[in-house]
Amino acid sequence: MSDKYDVVVIGAGPGGYVAAIRAAQLGLKTACVEKWISKEGKPVLGGTCLNVGCIPSKALLEASHKYHEAKHDFADLGIEAKDVKMDVKKMVARKDKIVTQLTGGIAMLFKANGVTAYEGTGKLQAGKKVEVTSHDGKTQTIEAENVIIASGSVPVEIPSAPLTEGVIVDSTGALEITETPKRMGVIGGGVIGLELGSVWKRLGSEVTVFEAMDSFLAAVDQQIAKDVKKSMTKQGLEIELGARVTSTEIKGKEVEVTYTDSKGEHKKTFDKLVVCVGRKPYTQGVLADDSGVSLDERGFIFVDDQCRTEAPGVYAIGDVVRGPMLAHKASEEGIMVADIIAGHKPEMNYDAIPNVIYTFPEVAWVGKTEEELKASGTPYKSGVFPFSAIGRAMANNCTEGMVKILAHEETDRVLGMHIFGQNAGEMIHNGVIALEFASSAEDLALTCFAHPTLSEAVHEAALAVDGHAIHMANKKKRK
User: Fold this and answer.
1) What is the pLDDT of residues 361-392, one digit of tens each?
2) Same-domain check for residues 365 and 327
3) Is 194 labelled a binding residue?
């Protein structure tokens, strides 16, 4: 006799655990299956994001930034800090403590909301049955009126750089390094590569980033990307564009990397090599042949706009479906699906999902880039305002970057917002809300922003869309 639930969620990452909690809040009998095992060998919730992704990487980014700031920037503020040192092992231990606190918090939320947690691997079978295989190999079957697949993603491995313990690692392994390597190579100049490269550069490593594409941060508005590359290079990251790693060779405790670019073949030796070339959906062992769920040509689970699969009553969310692989996107999809199951009529605006790169300064954007608008032939206008003209940025000793707002030429509707600067990840929600409510640039321009704040750059950029910026010489005449 199997257990029966209104909702069974496979995966307890930011998509799965949020979906489970929301479903339980709506009065649905809910279970969640999770196979993750901690470094201590204990079952834990939270998936990649909490255990080896978003949260631990931000803990290292924050610690390394504070160290770098104390060592190099405090003097500008009149603060004398001599012999500043970083205890890398203590930094990593703090990261682990934060992870433990947050994953334990999810367990308490499950208990408080009445979500039943199953430890083990979940596999969807025909008829909305989920086979759960525990870590000791025992199996049981649970039945559901509805199933939500939220099994997440895993790092992509490449044949030219096979993972080798202690020398060639993926993003997970990079979070466990306890001594600052003298030389570090990073394959992949995307979000994860730049963030991890920044951490170890701040701590003293010589960091080289290999990016196979000729363009830098191709998904980012290129006016912003140009300034980001300039900043990263100034910070000491060696960024090789159009550089394709063709092979690696382990030599003792070092790794020799062979790569090609427009100038030919080159070799470079590192103490650590981090592979960050992207992630792929994790569906291995999740779907039985008779589950009724199909994959698209890229290996993602095929779903409609409301995350329904081809099997009635079965949904899929997060990294296993189309769209950006972002924790907050997964969470919102989880809430939407739980609401649909409960009989509500929610909608999700995929055009208003923010992206953030947590380097310093941060990079954040939402909506369309200027390149996308040009390619689609959309008439647009733009307003740009630099942080160098913002009083709070000067006081904070961080004047790098800008805010850029793109609006429709005819309707003035905000089409995109792009920010490079301190706390960009916090400020981008001005743009998210503007897109969600179909605001115009004038709406933002007429909004009162507190002074002195960094967000005043958003206000000025909105004013600049029509040439009305106050703290910048304007080429356009006020109408």
Assistant:
1) 999 999 999 999 999 999 999 999 999 999 99
2) no
3) yes
| Residue 181 token pair | 């390597």
Q: Which of 379, 445, 448 is nearest to 415 (CA)?
A: 379
User: How many domains does the structure of the chain reveal?
Assistant: 3
Decide if 161 is inside a domain. no
Q: Which domain holds residue 272?
A: 168-276
Active-site residue, selected from the candidate residues 135, 266, 344, 451:
451
Burial of 128 (0-12, 13-18, 19+ CB in 10 A): buried
Query: DSSP string covering 227-250, please?
Result: HHHHHHHHTT-EEEET-EEEEEEE
126 is an annotated ligand-binding site residue: no
Displacement of CA 450 from its chain's centroid (Å)? 29
The pTM of the full predicted model, rounded to 2 decimals, is 0.96
Q: Max Cα separation, the chain?
A: 77
- For residue 163, the model assigns a pLDDT of 97
- Residue 30 and residue 355: Cα distance in Å, rounded? 31
**319 among annotated binding-site residues:** yes
Q: What is the sign, positive or negative, of the torsion defined by CA atoms of 388, 392, 393, 398?
A: positive
Q: Do 358 and 202 meet the contact criterion of CB atoms below 8 Å apart?
A: no
pLDDT digits (tens, 9 = 90+) for 260-313: 999 999 999 999 999 999 999 999 999 999 999 999 989 999 999 999 999 999
- Regarding whether 222 and 175 lie in a shared domain, the answer is yes
Residue 182 covered by a domain: yes
456 annotated ligand binder:
no
Residue 104 annotated as binding site: no
Neighbour-count burial of 85, counting CB atoms closer than 10 A to its CB (0-12 exposed, 13-18 middle, 19+ buried): exposed
pLDDT digits (tens, 9 = 90+) for 21-52: 999 999 999 999 999 999 888 999 999 999 99
* Identity at 20, one-letter amino acid code: A
Among 203, 194, 168, 201, smallest CA distance to 90 is for 203
Residue 70 sits in the same domain as residue 215: no
Question: How many whole angstroms separate alpha carbon 458 and alpha carbon 383?
Answer: 9
Average pLDDT for the chain = 96
* Residue at token pair 């191709």: 218
> Given 223, 252, 276, which residue is the final one in a domain?
276
Among this protein's residues, is 418 annotated catalytic?
no
Task: Find the CATH number of the domain harbouring 386.
Answer: 3.30.390.30
The response to whether 24 counts as a known ligand-binding position is: no
Q: Tell which of 276, 301, 331 closes a domain.
A: 276
Distance between first and last Cα of the chain: 75
Q: Is 472 inside any structural domain?
A: no
